[in-house]
Amino acid sequence: MDSLYDSACGAYIYDEDVLDFLVKYDNNLAGEMQILQPDCRTIINSQFLVAYRSALDTSGAPLSTDILFGLGYDRIPKCFGLMDTSALHGIGIGAVQTVPGLSLSGKDVLVGFIDTGIDFANPLFRRADGTCRVTAIWDQTQAAYEAGGQNMSMQSEEIDTRPIFGYGREYPQELLNLAIQTEQPYQIVPSRDTDGHGTFLASVAAGNTYLDGDDIFSGVAPESDIIMVKLKQAKQRLRDFFLIPDGVPCYSEADIILGVKYLINKAMELGKPLVICLGLGTNQGDHNGNLNLELYLDTVVTLPGICVVGSAGNELGTGGHFASLSTINLGNQNGISQPRTRTVRNEMEIYVEDENPGFCTEIWGRAPSLYQIAVYSPTGQRFDQLFPNRDSSGMITYLYEGTTLYAESVVVENNSGDPFILLRFEKPAPGIWRIEVTENYSSFPAGYDAWLPIRQFLGGNTRFSRPDPEVILCAPANARGTITVAGYNHLDNSLYVESSRGYTRKGRIQPDFAAPAVRVAGLLAGGSGTRPLFVRRSGTSVGAALTAGAAALFLEWGIVRGNYYGMNTEVIRQILIRGARTVVDIAYPNPAWGWGVLDISRAFEALRG
């Protein structure tokens, strides 16, 4: 069950009565199995695994929220949402593609995406000889798993479309080439991008050069090979636990991390360097790089031939972050002001304007301080059942509001070591919800931060009444193992109005730089056709796709051409930072722009010395 291409867990993966857990077990397999008691597991490496366990107790009733949380917040997969040819000029691609000594196009480099899928049959993803530039698709969705060849020709049935980690289907290039030679390619390979996000990002990073009269389009690395992981939607029980609205695309951290593992293994199998583009994000976690996905990415940051690129997120203006401004309660003894107690009390307000089915709020403190909360409803009813010095939980249904609040406090969160409080509001009444936080400190007050979910996971125009606009990078953008890309408008050199800002919660400099993210042209998904249709999109995921294409050019120059065999994520990050261009007269680095804006030509100039 632990191999890459075979698993006994297939029966559990799509079962809505089975819970998925993403576990950092650090070689203590027996200990984790004793805690979780799973029905099945899939080993990722010596540090991480995915475990599957029934969502029902012995009586057949669903496991309660407190039981789930008791298994460990760090083990519950987090929910990720989508982070939505002048751009090429803006990143300085011209000289890199045309200078005789470079002439880089991404040849023999893999560009991998973990996203909504790809329109593989589109002409923008075909080589000059008519073959498909998509090397493989791992489609995780149930539909792909069930297809199993029912619409395939006798010739295509001979090609293995094996499950990966026991689920979905892998469609290899041999089958993709066979499909695009027919009039109905999606009957042979029934994998479509119904959202369009993955197709758009793939075209921006790696689409063909396409001429239509005076119009020209090109991806950054038009000769690279593409691999796509089409994510399945998160299970309903995970969505319900985190109160994700119906109909909103939502993806499990466990499926994403397995997608990363698949791409890396595929690159090793093919013997080619790989760029991984992550256009997904979440506000969950400590915002300092300690989600399990982020910790896993940290393990690949130094691997030669691997580069991971992620988007900063689009959370500016949502009012989704609160930072405490602690003031010490001073007393007076003999005319000298001094701390009366080693406590600080601070207050934040969550404003729920319209009807909202529910949301979660995460409060992260800093060790060794201890934290206690009281939550007041709009009519003043108080909840204060949590203890500051030990793990505890509590629940209340506010009488007048009809709102149910579940609260959980963890004194030492497993991955970060910091105090953590989760507040889960079901059917929150409109109005001001007041949260009083008391910090007990040993030497000086450390403060705390709180985050609401990303904008698409949050209904009812819900926001903090006194938000802080910084420290709003969406995971995995806080990971040390990810090149983090903010967004700007390359046409007027202004910052993209929704681009998330850094730094990380404990001050590490991220984002690394900004890339074009406003009305960038890319492919419109919707079928094969004979003429590509283009659309413009904005979002930091677009900037990440442009940067992923740039990384492919550096891997071609460094590894494929033998100029720098040790090139990896960290090396490419530092090269691109050295080439970053300043466009606004402010100090660099800074939380909005990082070290400047992406400029590939300047980066190669820096290499030349």
UniProtKB/TrEMBL annotation:
- Quick check: keyword Nucleus in the entry? no
SUPFAM superfamilies according to UniProt: Subtilisin-like
Catalytic site: 115 (charge relay system), 197 (charge relay system), 541 (charge relay system)
What the entry lists under Gene3D superfamilies is as follows: 2.60.120.1290, Peptidase S8/S53 domain
Q: Which UniProt keywords apply?
A: Hydrolase, Protease, Serine protease
The protein's matches in InterPro entries, at most eight in alphabetical order, are given as: Pep_S8_CspA-like, Pept_S8A_subtilisin_clostridia, Peptidase_S8/S53_dom, Peptidase_S8/S53_dom_sf, Peptidase_S8_Asp-AS, Peptidase_S8_subtilisin-like, Peptidase_S8_subtilisin-rel
User: The Peptidase S8/S53 domain covers which part of the protein?
Assistant: 106-315, 460-596
User: Which PROSITE patterns does its entry note?
Assistant: SUBTILASE, SUBTILASE_ASP
**Entry's Pfam families?**
Peptidase_S8 (PF00082)
* Family from the record: Belongs to the peptidase S8 family.
| This protein's name | S8 family peptidase
Q: What species was this sequence derived from?
A: Coprococcus hominis
